[in-house]
Specification:
Length: 186
């Protein structure tokens, strides 16, 4: 039975650099034998997470079902002002709804972390923030987290890049999520 990985990310702009980076990492996981489901961009635009109501949009429900069914998770976010985007953070806040499920939050799940920003400082601080949130949700961030400096690394319309180092790092993140999920299943 294939490992099921959920890949989330991007920005409100379809085909953004952070979405393209996510897809490269997803291809790394697929190459290792995983089934990857993508929820990106505007499909992650949920109402602000509200602890005071159980009402959830259809997109938020689909997201939570996909998280609950996943063996691993890949998160790719743009770096906005030194941190992850509000859209990605809000989606991660929705995981609070899984606090009483069969797997509490992301307990024991491998999470690949990717940050994309225009500058190395923003990529580093954003990557750290994703890793901290993953830990708070009881997940295991992969040993390698990928940082993509969008002022240097460019993606083509088909989601490829000539930056071999960036491509290799992104694919490694995807493979590490698949590997850890396989090991934890045994």
């Amino acid at each position: 039975m294939a490992i099921n990985i959920l890949a989330i990310g991007g920005s409100t702009r379809p085909g953004s650099s952070s979405e393209q980076a996510l897809r490269v990492a997803g291809r790394g996981a697929e190459g290792a034998g995983a089934k990857v489901t993508y929820i990106t961009g505007r499909d992650l635009m949920f109402p602000i997470y509200d602890t005071e109501t159980p009402d959830r949009s259809d997109n938020a429900k689909k997201f939570l079902e996909a998280v609950a069914a996943a063996d691993g998770l890949i998160i790719s976010t743009p770096g906005y002002h030194g941190g992850m985007s509000g859209m990605i953070k809000n989606a991660l806040d929705y995981i609070e709804d899984l606090r009483e499920g069969p797997r509490v939050y992301l307990d024991g799940m491998a999470v690949g972390c990717i940050s994309v920003a225009y500058g190395w400082q923003a990529t580093a601080t954003t990557l750290l923030q994703i890793r901290v949130v993953a830990h708070a949700l009881r997940a295991w961030p992969t040993p390698l987290g990928a940082t993509i400096n969008a002022s240097i690394t460019k993606f083509s319309a088909d989601g490829t890049t000539d930056d071999e180092g960036a491509r290799s790092n992104l694919e490694t993140v995807g493979r590490q999520v698949e590997q850890f999920a396989t090991w934890s299943r045994k």
